[in-house]
Structure formats: C-alpha cells, structure tokens
Amino acid sequence: MAIQFTAHEVKDQLKDKRKLKQFLSDLFTAEGQGLKSLHYVFCTDAYLLEINKQFLQHDTYTDIVTFEMGEDPEVTEGEIYLSVDRVTENAEKFGVPFNHELHRVIFHGALHLCGFKDKSKKEAALMRSKEEEYLNKYFGK
Fold first, then answer.
1. What does the pLDDT look like over 64-73, one tens digit per residue?
2. Which annotated residues bind Zn(2+) (predicted)?
C-alpha cells in the first residue's frame, strides 16, 4: 500500500505526513475498503478547473476531484486532486483553520473512494458526519 502527496504549483503545506498516511490507511480499514495506492495532488484552482472540464465536463471551480483508477471495487487505486485555493477560501468562509479544512477535504476524498456519496441531502449529511468523525479522531478531540 502506497500513499503519496504531491504539490503541483503550490506550496507543500502538509505536516507529519507519516502520521497522515497511517491515519488514511486506518480509515480505509475501518470502512472495510482495501487500499493498494492513493495519490493526493495539491494544486491551484486553474489546474483543477482544467481537470474538472476535461474529465467530468464541469466548468466550475471545486475543492476536490476524486478518481478511482483500479478495476477491483474491493481495493482502491485512487487519485485525488485538491485545490489549495478553494481550501483556503472555504476555511475563511466557514471560519475554520486552514489545516482543519485541508484535512476535511483529504478525508472527504478518501471517503468517496470508500463508497460514500454526497449528491442527495441524506448522502451529504452522512458524508459530513463521517468527515467530522475522522477529523475528531485525527486531531484528538
């Protein structure tokens, strides 16, 4: 199992990557999802907008785009793209620390790969609940 973090045209703002990798591995185990590989790419709004247009035909800014790259639904091989610009703006908008919002989005992408959706109100409420659960576990609340 390999978890990677790459900063593309943005400053690397992650601290304690070893702890985060172990936590993400544990998240997948707790959710009953196998994990072969996971690659997070932290990027700009402009870069993620191009990915959103090219692969999802969405011409909108977003904080995250998640791709399952593998063929086995039981074992994740994922790529997750996160806009640091969106995370920064959302942290300000919601009045939370940048680091908190960054980890919320990191866990959000992992939860998508574990099968959680957020299209309906019910799905979105469960997703938010799971994000909070993992944020509290990660930050020791």
1. 999 999 999 9
2. 108, 112, 118
